[in-house]
Amino acid sequence: MAAASTGAAADAQARFGRSVKGLLIEKVTGCGTDVIALTKQVLKGSRSAELLGHAARNMVMQEDAILHSEDSLRKMAIIATHLQYQQEAIQKNVEQSSNLQDQLCHLLK
After folding, report:
1. Per-residue pLDDT for the chain (109 aa), expressed as one digit of tens each?
2. How far is CA 21 from CA 13, 14, 17, 98, in A?
């Protein structure tokens, strides 16, 4: 009977060892899966940071383009004002030349 109880104990111990081994394998597999998921998340985070960096650079470039456009518009407004003054001066000269032509015609008669 002692041999039977020793055999039963050894059998129980072997079953316990297999179940512990199975639990360890499950835990190791779960940890491996978690490490893979964490690695993917870190890579995704670094990619997000890279995309944010690109977006920031693009925004700075757009801001520079907007500032350049504003400067160009200001310059164009100044040029338009100068052209308007020149057009008014030309118009006055044309009117004065018409008056001069009339006066010359009147003098020559």
Report:
1. 555 566 666 676 767 667 777 788 888 888 888 888 888 888 787 788 888 888 999 999 999 999 999 999 999 999 999 999 999 999 999 988 888 888 888 888 7
2. 12, 10, 6, 113
